[in-house]
Amino acid sequence: MGLTVPGHRSAAPPADSLHIALPVLQAARRARRPQGQMASWRATALVVVHVLILAHVVHWLINGRTMAPVVLSNAMHTLELGQVNPAAVLFAIVLGSTLLFGRFFCGWACHMAALQDLCAWALGRLGMRPAPFRSRLLPWIPVGLAGWMFLWPTADRLLVKPLLARWWPESTVAAPTAPFPGWRGAWSTDDLWAGLPGVAVAIPFLLVCGFATVWFLGARGFCNYGCPYGGLLRPIERLSPLRLTVDSARCDGCGRCTAACGSNVPVLDELRRYGQVVSAHCVRTLDCVEACPNDALTLRFTTPAVRHRRGIGFDRHRADPPLVAELGLLALFALVFWSTRGLYGVIPMLFAVGLGVCALPAAWTTWRMVRADDVRRFGFQLRRRGRMTPSGRVFLGLVALGGLVIVQSASVRMHAWSADRHDSRVTVSRETVFTAPETVPPEAKHHAARALHHYRRASAATDGGLGLARTPAHDLRAAWLHLVLGEPRRAETMFRRALDRLGPRDAVCADIGLAILLAGDPDGAEAYLAAVREAHPAFVRTLGALCEVLRRRGRADAAEQLLVAHLQRRPDDAEVRSALAWHRAMYGGR
Fold first, then answer.
1. Which tens digits make up the pLDDT trace of 195-212?
2. How many domains does the chain have?
3. To bridge 459 with a disulfide, which of 6, 330, 463, 568 should be the other Cys (CB 3.0-4.6 Å)?
4. What b-and-e string marks burial along 313-352, b requiring 16 or more CB atoms within 10 Å of the CB?
């Protein structure tokens, strides 16, 4: 008996032998170009990208001011705040190039792509081969995130809030957002790291969004299931006329193109069904073109993939979980993302997305371990013949620990959400709190007390809360609420605790001085504010608080002298100039 793959010529085997021809091995001898050349070119391009990033940082360190961060998330500020910045220009270029040429940016210029490729290479060197996690619905997660980041702020301001204000005016949800300030340039900055996480968050972020997503979801797992920028590029990519096509006369069906794809695209299957690669996950690395031993694949202009009825997700027959299970996994992602995003004021959005998508294959594997007799995943045999293996016990222990952390994080976020609801109802003005605290309405004090209770529960366990750490923003709000309740000493403690994490802040230092004054210690307030002013001469609000303390002590002339001295050093400070005019109108002077 002889089994020969069509398209491969071989001598007739003996009648009693089993002959299997492997065209992949035979075709490899006919390869016309050195393998790995395309990967080297792509690695060079990604190295150049990181060299440019390093040069940007060095320029800022030397000059103290440089071009604004070219971080795609900053493009949100253009539509939401009217800030036209370098990130918005880059994103516009990426969208336009994707419309014409496909997702070359994702494969050749994205720093997250470089991280994913590096982690996949490192795992391969360790003998850990990532298994792809295929789904129909979960690839829509990035699309939803993209809409939430780039479309929701505008829709909320122009449509949602006006409708809520008309139909449900008494709700705090219907409170109008700030009006659109108009377009303005934001091309440079003196704080390049503003809004970016520190080292303590960056390292876990790289581990989760790099190694963990690749190992749990397959090569470019974060790109397929978590990247919100890819969520905008995928629908646009399907309109691109530049496609990977096949010459059927040359293709012998060896499958090397599918094996070479780093985005888990079933290249051979799509070429056979559509004559081109139509998957929105294709990022044009061209590894499949290089891997073809017969030069059957070509990148050329043809009919866009949108004409084919093919979604953003993977094919139904290639998905791992059934549809009902995927709905449950979507709910799990929403829970993990909501529970971790912004937790303790340190976890950025993409980090929360990485945690959320990594939880999905772990949850699905746990469910399979309950239902199936044999389960192998992540390179380990977790269950064999109905019995749990040692690796399976370790895996379930880690899943249980992760589940406890998610539940704990969700509890912290729930208390923080409840605190925000009560806090939003405390509408007392600063003038009332600092000049006539006895006139604060009882209703405001009630909501302040309830908000403080929930902020305390959302704080660290050392403060009687459920959290693992403190949240500086919560400490600042709690300090203000203590002032509303007439507790200036406790407010001072909370303000100082927030400064320990945030560093010197002008507005916070000013409020500390006024809290000390409300506590009946004008000498201490003056000494504290004067010390802050000496250390930070540019702190304008601290100057205003110090002048207020001096005026209450009957030393209006000394307050005027401070304002005049500041303007002599900074004559263009409009805020202090206005404060000086108000002071002279109220207290006289030159």
1. 777 778 888 998 999 999
2. 2
3. 463
4. bbeeeebbbeeebbeebbebbebbbbbbbbbbebbbbbbb
